Amino acid sequence: MGEINWTPSQRKAIDASGISLAVSAAAGSGKTSVLTRRITERVCSGTADVSRLLVVTFTRAALLVVTFTRAAAAELVTRIEKALSEESVKNPSDKRLIRQMLLLPSAKISTIDGFCLDLIRENFQDTGISGFGVLDADAEKIMKLDIADELISDYYDGNVSKENEISDFPKFSDTLGSPSSDNALAPVTVKLHDFYSGCVNREKAIKDPPENAEFHLSFWGKAIYGIASELARHYMNFFGAALKTIRASEGASGWEAAFEADYDLCRVLYNKLFLGAPYEDIREYLSDFESRSVKCGQVKSQFKTPELEYFKNIRDKKFKKELAELRKNFFSCTGDMLKKALSETESLQNDLIKFFREYDRRLSDEKKRRHMLGFSDIERIALDLLYDSDNDCPTAAAKEISSRFDEVYIDEYQDTNELQNKIFTLIAREDNLFTVGDIKQSIYDFRGAEPSIFTAQLDSRKKYGEQNGDKAAKFFLSENFRSADKVINLTNAVFSTIMNTDGKISYGDDEKLVCGKTELISPLPEMHIVCKSDENPSLTEAAVAAEKISALISSGEVKAGDIAVLMPTGAYASDIAAELEKRGVPCRNGTAKEFFQSPEVLLALSLLNTIDNPSRDVYLAATLKSPLYGVTLDELIYIRRCKKTGSLYSALKAFTEKTGFAKGKRFLSDHEQFRSRAKICTCGELVREVYSKTKITALCGGDKTGVNTNLRRLYDYARSFESGGSRGLYTFISFIDELIDTDSKVDMSGFGGGADAVRIMTVHGSKGLEFDTVFFCDTSRGFNRDSAKDNAVAVRGMPLAPRIYENAKRIETPMRRAATEIQSSRQSEEKCRLLYVALTRAKRRLVITGSCDEKNAKKYDFTDPSSECSLRRSIFSAYARKKCKSMLDLICTGLSECPELCSIDFMTELDTTEKPQTKTEEKNSGTYAEGRYLAEKRLDFVYPHELLSRIPSKLSVSKLFPDVLDEKDDSAKTDALPAPSEPIVPVFIAGESDSGASRGTAMHTFMQFFDFGYVDKFGVKAEIKRLAENKFLFSGDSEKLNVRKLERFFASPLAALMRDAETLYREKRFIIFYPAESFSEDEKTKEALKGERLMVQGVIDCAAKTKNGELILIDYKTDFFPDETGEDEIKKILAERHSRQLGYYKYACRELFGKSPDHTYIYSFALDGTVEI
Predict the structure, then answer these.
(1) Of 49, 531, 893, 1107, whose CB neighbour count within 10 A is largest?
(2) Same domain assignment for residues 1027 and 1139
(3) Are 593 and 562 in contact (CB under 8 A)?
(4) In this structure, how many other beta carbons lie within 10 angstroms of the beta carbon of residue 111?
């Protein structure tokens, strides 16, 4: 059947029956085609009825096919339809096939959510749930945050059910959240709640298993011993390889004794761990490991090869440090300390369980009130329908549903979680479950995917044909029909090294790709590493990639639409897009970017805000000045001058009525129409009308810049918003504001752009896609380890591991450190899988780019046997993989064994050499894009050091802020506007004001000149009089001084400290140089400013050197606060408001006095006390 020449392995996967089969399908192996063919043959043979695909109400001989995305479901339906159509053409008299074709539209090949939804709706009498909608993920997130905030407040107020009370809720809040912020606990609550939503039994997952065994036999003890064993085993191999090299090298025997001692140290440690020695024994053994170390003897320089130097460097700088960290992190606790840590950990776990019970109840009540469910609710309710948790067995409903299916198909099984897996095992039988997946492509840990489930399924089974009567088997599809042999060879070389370790992923003969497309001719894969240096700061990886892409397109080898630029994250996407656009290359940026910061979305939201409330001046000004209405800055000034009070909207109306301002008339007409429509139509309809009438897409640049993509996504938001039960423009705007406040990012993969454009996307967004040419960029970006910073670490399959909060301090525990370490190991495995997906997207051409400092370039030279990456490969392990810092580290380590599989180029300058053109080519210079690029390149020369020319010669401390040297739009500066119509009256005519600023100046002047001895003897008032008579205070300053506040200062401990100081510096003026890069937040600017200095002048209010040698920095503040402001709030505001300025003063102290201040105080006259910064 069919025209495809199925390979023997594919044919077996199609034909196998009467058995549960787990198919490990490698990238490009045609798994979807195999799955389609298997289903089609069963339908055509009469074993299954197409109308009953995934319909859970049908009788036997039905099939259940579950996929993980709507796109995959739609593709499968299309493929089955095509296959049935082909069979019908071959057998026109087969009435059953014709019937199957007619019934195909009723077939449901569903996502997991769709399947669970059908279960709930069909069994509403058992679930008690009917007539509900499904919450949008963003709307649910905001709801969960709101309810978490309310619950936290109620816990503080004691307004919770008695059974869920937490004895010390402030401690609970400070432990999981932050003692310095009341807003920290809510997002942590939502994050942990989402994390545990994929668990069958959340409470069991959170809490430590009950154990009475000794610590080393407990769950945490075994975890810690596993971590220590990994380190010991790695360094045993390391020192073994080093000793082999030393013994084979001439003149290196002086190091042999030291390396032998370290090898023995690791061997003994590993054996103790392997044999299960008590915790105290390991602790004692590591307590003085330094005493077992032997100092290296002498080796003459002529005998020190790069390989020997590498081993020596690792031993001296890494091994000892890492072993000391192991001791400190895991084996420094006494028995009592461990018991206390375990007790505190268990207490917090119990409190979190209570907190979640109350949280779940309130979430459920709110969702019932709205008649809505979230996606995690749908799966949970489906599980409750199928699973009797009290007796750990299927329910009657599960047994009845299971009996309906002859075969259950599940695609992308590597991305399932524990709860979903439980559902599938409840509806499948031991001989009818067909799962398809690829462990090496499991890259969705952040969504809850647990690849260990599919791994366990594969590990527990024998290969198909070898199962000896078993009702379950496994099968491998390794042929790749996507990529050329050169791409496959590189992929196999890399992953044979980085996956074949002692970790949880492997890359053996079954997993290696076999080229199924041998006829495809391809170039050798390329690697370009940009060497950054001070001499050429403009050379960037983005520019190199864009230049290579431009050259490929210009040569006619590929079209723009054949190229994809993939990156580990979307952080670098805008840089590459900008470089491509600079060269006239069309591109589509599909990364998950700062959607709400894109200009077209900001403009659309400004207009919507103006329609909702025209009195919001900022939004109105943005709308008027935009391309929609074209009001200039000067025109805005004239509008405001027409009516200086009231809103800008009222001024616009007055100005338009007075002058007949055409732009104003058009805006007011549109605004009136949109306001009227907003009252009667949905948000989606209003947004569509706004787009249509204003022509916002065309005015903002059209689809060439991705405008259509972003505006269409905003329109989708408006449509989906009201499907969740909310109504009205104001409510929609509030919803968007909350999304922005919660830092929500919008996944734009799959959206927008023309067909013939370079695709820019993350590796996650490229899953399931393929491209002729792939540029894998930004590979040197460091791996993100931020999750290790969480106060409580949640790792799948492990209990929650928090820091302990005691005596206002966070205390680390061995349990939390173990959870963090295991999480790091799993993240390193996921990075390998992410790399696998990236490399296997390429069909014909693969180009890898990265960057490094010029001095570190050698470490990535995989063609050099003495380079760091080549030497690392010889002792590569799961432990070494965990220590790799980037994708580039992994790739170069893997390639070092077969350097001939990839070319490498270390770039120190950008090659933009133009190819000579023929006369015909000069006449017809190519496309508009090429012409534009050449014109810009030849005419738009930019002075390479223009940034340095903008550094001011001098700045005062008051003008400093972290991005003061970043380029800004100064078009609205007041000194560029026409002179005001009212004359400025000099102070000597108008008289001095009694403003807060003038009173603050007076207080500072007094603090500069007062005399402690005079104040102590005659009092503050007498000192004020003395200073005024001696002209230290200006005329009028005496009345501005607050005598009571000054008297309280002189009675304060700070004044006593100043009296007793050995040296007191008051109004200490300085001019010093600061590193210029400290005053930019732009990474490119910071790089360009390295080595440059900025002259800064300022005045330190007071610095005191005490008799015991301490340096005290003091700053006086006269900030005003309302009477109702509490002391803690004042302290918080002062710290936030002035910490940056005092940071600059601290730097000045280091320069002036040769040391940093031991203490830094703000003396607040509003507080009558000090705040230590």
Answers:
(1) 893
(2) yes
(3) no
(4) 17
Q: Is there a contact between 629 and 646 (Cβ–Cβ < 8 Å)?
A: no
Query: What mean pLDDT comes out for the span 434-443?
Result: 92
pLDDT tens per residue across span 769-783 = 999 999 999 999 998
Alpha carbon distance 46, 406 (integer Å) = 12
Q: Are 255 and 293 within one domain?
A: yes
Per-residue CA distances from 334 to 365, 546, 812 (Å): 47, 58, 14
1164 within 8 A of 1117, measured Cβ to Cβ: yes
Helix (H, G, I), strand (E, B) or coil at 324: helix
Same domain, 553 and 695: no
φ/ψ of residue 97, rounded to 5? -65, -40
Say yes or no: 960 and 1100 in one domain: yes
Q: Is residue 947 part of a domain?
A: no
Residue that has been written with the tokens 């002036």 in this structure? 1152
pTM across the whole model: 0.71
Helix 70-90 and helix 95-103: axis angle, to 10°?
Answer: 160
Residues 6 or more apart in contact with residue 307 via CB below 8 angstroms: 245, 249, 866, 871
CB-based contact 978:984 (threshold 8 Å) = no
Q: Do 458 and 488 share a domain, yes or no?
A: no
Q: What is the sign, positive or negative, of the torsion defined by CA atoms of 686, 689, 695, 698?
A: positive
Say which CATH number the domain at 532 has. Answer: 3.40.50.300
- The total number of structural domains in the chain stands at 6
pLDDT for 698 equals 75
1043 C-beta neighbours (distance < 10 Å), count: 13
Outline where 556-632 has alpha helix (H).
Answer: 573-582, 599-612, 617-625
In a domain? residue 984: no
**What CA–CA distances, in Å, run from 763 to 25, 580, 846, 893, 925?**
19, 19, 14, 21, 36
Distance CA 685, CA 715 (A): 9
Helix (H) or strand (E) holding 879: helix 878-883
Which is it for strands 1169-1172 and 1159-1164: parallel, antiparallel or unpaired?
antiparallel
Are 1016 and 1162 part of one and the same domain? yes
Of 787, 876, 784, 872, the residue nearest 834 (C-alpha): 784
**Residues 231 and 359 occupy one common structural domain:** no
Nearest to 856 by CA among 905, 906, 890: 906
CB contact at 8 A, 385 and 395:
yes
pLDDT tens readout for residues 374-402:
888 999 999 999 999 999 999 999 999 88
- With tokens 């932050």, the residue in question is 178
Three-state SS for 92?
coil
| Other beta carbons within 10 Å of 121 | 14
